[in-house]
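Morning run. Coffee first, then this:
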Amino acid sequence: MADQETIEKLKTQIEVAIAGADTLPALDDVRVASLGKKGSVSALLSTLGKMTPDERKVAGPAINGLKKEIGALVEGRLADLKKQALEQRLQSEKVDVTLPLRPGPVSAGRVHPVSQVIDEITAIFSDMGFALAEGPDIETDYYNFTALNFPEGHPAREMHDTFFFNPDKEGKRKVLRTHTSPVQIRTMENQEPPIRIIIPGRTYRCDSDQTHTPMFHQVEGLVIDKSSHIGQLRWVLEEFLKTFFEVDNVVTRFRPHFFPFTEPSMEVDVQCDRSGSEVKIGQGSDWMEILGCGMVHPNVLRMSGLDPEVYQGFAWGMGIDRLAMLKYGMPDLRAFFDADQRWLDHYGFRPLDLPTLFGGLSS
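And here it is:
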């Protein structure tokens, strides 16, 4: 039988255990050991069934009272421990709201100069009425060479240090395109003139030094109409150069050259100043070659399904990476592909500063 002395002794033991519990798991262990199904208080309650009615009248209220007291003590200690835990957390996790915020992804991120220059070029030519065209990086020999007036075995094919794939079942070898010109052929095959397109994209050649990389970016333009002529070509290119380099005037010089897909073919020099540490476009007395162009060869028109007696046109091509180097003063082309965060932080552009003709291309 559980007498009063036994109940008081048990109560004292449990009170000491509750007071000594300094963590929530330790307090829960005390609760289970006293009030759980196999706990000490529960064991006393299980003895009530073996008592006489008179004994039960005395022991019952005493044991149930102990159970309530222990429950109240546990709840009180639980509240104290939760309060202590919250205070410790507030001390360890406090934030000084007077400190400046860390820059978010939008402000910290940077647009690669190549992407920026592509957007600038697109904005300029879109304002002139040109559409954007794209094509596959992996091309057939036909689209990369033959349709562009590079006959098989022609020495001009050696001008391009080409990446070839292994021969297929038919013995034909695809290539990584050496220029974006195949898109010109694909467009002429599928679109009726007049055609006015620009073609920015990746190109590939076996070459690597300070001004050449195995993969680089190129933009080409194509105009096909019944009355296109070199005068229009010169106006388009000079307007582009003035707008891209953000100068009031440029002076260009057209020199005869050879490209299999244009006739006549020309290289274009722009007047510049090389006297200082930077190349300044639109001033000075020096010259710099900047792009190649010409009137579309009649053979290319025929291969594309157009009658050269009816249609004529002009095309040009220039390196996007080189344009970026000239405009933004980057000394080494290879750094474009090094994925160096420090380089990108220095030369990159804020993502929300989109190039527009009215807001400024490089603002």
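The chain has a mean pLDDT of 87. Good start to the day.
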